[in-house]
């Protein structure tokens, strides 16, 4: 009796790593619902409030200076080495490479470019929005502050909002955005929140950012994640266009693309050399000989068409075998006498 082999945990893991035969139908594309619109508007209002609080040098700027004078890196020096490596989780280059590798595998497995295109769109939005805010407000960081208690705005810096924090929110939050099940989305949302919160506080610990920079970086990254459903139709069109270009390139490479045949015209008449055009003899076209010679009919009726009963038979009546004198017809006695032996 043949029994099926029981799969181990390692076998199940490798089975999940196999490429799916076609694009899964359960891929959930987030839509811009009313709840998401309300969250986006609230986050945008919070973003504007933080900027206004820093511009008018409010209590938030005084809190920035108090945290800066506290110097957390001197209060807890034993975790400095660990946080130097932990802050890399917010750097754009390393995190983009790690996330792109994971999403690239997902794209290959699910036969879709949406994960990679969504990551590219989010990073493009991140560079445009956060970069424009940094350059337009020009705030200096704690290590380059010029006047105690000032907001350090429009002095040629590029620290407000925190790029590390916004990048951590976007790159790790995109995993939750692209999750295919609600349970995975909840777990990945919690993971991205913890990572981005830790990266932001690490920059404050190291003294590279004000606390208000980190708060604005969280808001900037969250705005990008909330706005991504507005770009889903553009991502879908880009995916379709890329697949069409790929199919056309493959067809051109294999030579399977239909090539329109040139119309065949009438054969041109050749004129013999030495005679002018007006004295040319008419060209008589002879029929092309067939590969097999035409066989002439073996019998032609001499007169008009006759009925089958009135026609003379072509073949003689009777047997075609020549007469044989020694052959005896069946049913008759033999001509030779039988002799006893």
Descriptive terms for the model:
341 residues, mainly alpha, 11 helices, 52% helix, 0% strand, elongated, disordered C terminus
Description:
This protein is an all-alpha fold. It contains eleven helices and no strands. The chain has helices at 9-17, 34-55, 59-70, 72-75, 80-86, 92-110, 114-137, 163-177, 182-206, 211-227, 232-254. Helix 2 (34-55) packs antiparallel against helix 10, helix 7 packs antiparallel against helix 8 (163-177) and helix 7 (114-137) runs antiparallel to helix 10. It is elongated. The two termini are 76 Å apart. 22% of the residues are buried.
| Helical stretch tally | 11
Using only C-alpha atoms, the radius of gyration works out to: 46 Å
The H/E string reads: HHHHHHHHHHH
- Could you report the average pLDDT, rounded to the nearest whole number? 79
- What is the straight-line distance between the termini? 76 Å
Helix % is: 40-55%
Low-confidence stretches: 258-271, 288-292, 297-303, 333-341
Number of strands: 0
Envelope shape: elongated
Structural class by secondary-structure content: mainly alpha
**Content of β-strand:** under 5%
Largest sheet: none
């Amino acid at each position: 009796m043949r029994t099926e082999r029981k799969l181990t945990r390692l076998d199940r893991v490798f089975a999940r790593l196999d490429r799916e035969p076609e694009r899964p139908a359960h891929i959930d594309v987030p839509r811009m619902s009313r709840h998401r619109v309300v969250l986006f508007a609230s986050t945008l209002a919070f973003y504007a409030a933080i900027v206004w609080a820093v511009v008018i040098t409010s209590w938030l700027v005084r809190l920035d200076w108090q945290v800066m004078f506290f110097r957390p890196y001197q209060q807890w020096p034993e975790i400095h080495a660990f946080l130097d490596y932990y802050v890399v989780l917010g750097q754009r280059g390393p995190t983009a490479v790690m996330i792109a590798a994971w999403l690239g595998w997902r794209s290959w497995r699910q036969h879709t470019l949406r994960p990679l295109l969504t990551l590219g769109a989010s990073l493009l939005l991140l560079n445009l929005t956060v970069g424009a805010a940094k350059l337009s407000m020009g705030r200096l960081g704690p290590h380059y502050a010029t006047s105690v208690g000032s907001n350090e705005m429009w002095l040629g810096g590029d620290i407000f909002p925190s790029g590390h924090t916004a990048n951590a929110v976007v790159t790790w939050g995109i995993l939750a955005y692209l999750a295919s099940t609600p349970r995975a989305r909840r777990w990945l949302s919690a993971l991205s929140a913890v990572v981005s919160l830790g990266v932001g506080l690490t920059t404050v610990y190291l003294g590279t950012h004000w606390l208000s920079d980190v708060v604005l970086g969280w808001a900037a990254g969250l705005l990008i994640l909330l706005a991504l459903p507005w770009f889903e139709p553009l991502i879908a069109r880009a995916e379709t266009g890329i697949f069409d270009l790929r199919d056309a390139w493959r067809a051109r490479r294999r030579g399977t693309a239909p090539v329109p045949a040139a119309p065949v015209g009438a054969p041109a008449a050749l004129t013999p050399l030495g005679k002018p055009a007006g004295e040319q003899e008419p060209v008589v076209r002879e029929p092309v000989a067939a590969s097999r010679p035409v066989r002439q009919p073996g019998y032609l009726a001499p007169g008009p068409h006759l009925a089958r009963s009135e026609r003379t038979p072509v073949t003689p009546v009777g047997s075609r075998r020549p007469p044989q004198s020694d052959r005896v017809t069946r049913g008759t006695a033999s001509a030779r006498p039988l002799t006893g032996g």
